Fold this protein.
Amino acid sequence: MAKTIMVQGTMSNVGKSLVAAGLCRIFKQDGLRVCPFKSQNMALNSYITKEGLEMGRAQVMQAEAAGIEPSALMNPILLKPNSDTGSQVIVNGIARGNRNAAEYYRKKHTLIPEITKAYQILAAQYDVIVIEGAGSPAEINLKENDIVNMGMAKLADAPVLLVGDIDRGGVFAQLYGTIKLLDGEEQRRVKGLIINKFRGDRSILVPGLEQLEAMTGVPVIGTLPYLHVDLDDEDSLSERLHDERRHGYRGEKPVKIAVIKLPRISNFTDFSVFEQFAQVSVYYTETPEGVQNADMIILPGTKSTMSDLLWLRQSGLEAAIQKASQRGVPVFGICGGYQMLGQEIRDPNHVEGGGSVKGIGLLPVVTVFDSEKRRTQVSGRFREMKGALEKLTDVSFLGYEIHHGNTVCVKDCAAVGGISDGRLDGAQCGNVYGTYVHGIFDERAAAVIVETLLEAKGLVMEQEKDYDRTAYRQRQYDLLADNLRSNLDMDMVYRILNKQLV
């Protein structure tokens, strides 16, 4: 059976996912068979495995760091919020309907057998399992029947590393307070403390670190600097969505790509590929001002297409997008964004509450929601492309589909892609394009688009357009691992993994 180590945090977005990914990479580099695990994930960034099962992208990223194929077993429960109080519940990769928070909380203990089975299958296949927690283990109102933090640590008999975020302030209170809100058995499971996102002179921290160790009885095994690595983010707390420094419509980079920040935005990792181009600013906007100077506008996926479309209309962004399209600005919709660009969305099966809503009207298509969700990996090529993005013609792509909608053309229009199974995907009209394929930009398409947008400004691309995205991501994992090796006491980590600390 595998050895285990668990990464928990003092709150959301302290860096648990990246620390877990870095440990996966280190253990892989050290010759161990390692895999990630997170019993319950709440996120709208999801992925479809080769088997057609849905899982959170954080564990996909960690599996990639570990050098293994992602499996839904690594994330047996995925919650995809579709309102302020409810989520779609996905168990072992398959949706089991929508639940409000109170109902899910009452019944979540019934999912423990599913978690246990998934964990045990993986534990029999690997040398090490790196488990990630969620939120904070000190959410005392949620501790009963916990299945993702200390409850999971107990189930797997895993020692725990506790991560705090110094960049948000109060890191000593975060770590001390979290430990003191745990019961005695839980406190004894915490074997190491990690301070993440540090900027400055570490020597200034030393008196505080010594006092923290004395007060908690737990060693500080590392202080990690604020590291900029280009890896997938898990959820809506991502700095990609909230960091004002990314609002590139006020920046000086020549190409500006505006991604509409929908209230229930999902799979915004589809656009991370553009960020590795030095001449491109990718920014997320929820105001009409944000699209006025954009060179390209992207409408992303969403878990609540109809309500987010109404928000788009009420915010003034719909009119701003229509005006930008009239000026010749390319507009590209992915999944829910593609559906919004059409003439109408109908929901006869009450997938999103029923009824119908008028679309933005830039593509001659109509979408009807089906109660069955399509989940599949795909490969294909762009068909003959018209308008601003004609250079995409015959460019290959890999990705996946995950949607309830069936979209049909209501008058003659060309498809965007040809799928290897013979199907056609998406629609195009002038400079407006839509597709159901998540990840469609990840191969060569992003580089071709950037080159096209630069040429429209009379500029030359500074990077090779035929870059290797896979090799780039592997370098990011190595950078992350190097950072952890340099700033964590890895001898202590291995002692914790081997349960040599009591």
Observations:
- The first helix runs from residue 16 to 29.
- The first strand starts at residue 3 and ends at 9.
